[in-house]
Amino acid sequence: MLRKYIVIGSLNALLSVALGAFGAHILQKILTPERLATFETAVQYHMSHALGILLIALLADKLVDQRKALWAARLLWIGIIVFSGSLYLLCFTGVTKLGAITPIGGVAFIAGWLMLALSVSAHKR
User: Are the C-beta atoms of 120 and 55 separated by less than 8 Å?
Assistant: First the structure.
């Protein structure tokens, strides 16, 4: 799990930085202020949860329930795809109905952080 999710987390952090730069330098001239704010929210959640995936990968061997830790990383990744992805698509396409699936990504984020907490329910000694 460690290597795979270090790669996934790192590539998502890279993508978040690239999209953030794209937004700051290109999209600010194209998008409305409201859409730009939405794009910035997508980038912020993308980066913070990419770092969360990295954190889980780095902690994995110290966690009691590695299966829950694996699910935590998966759920954060799903959250990035659904939450940030739907917001990115909304900004690029203007299809506001995409906002209806954004909360599903938010639930995935919440579930991922809960799974991380549950993965340490007992301590190794």
Answer: no
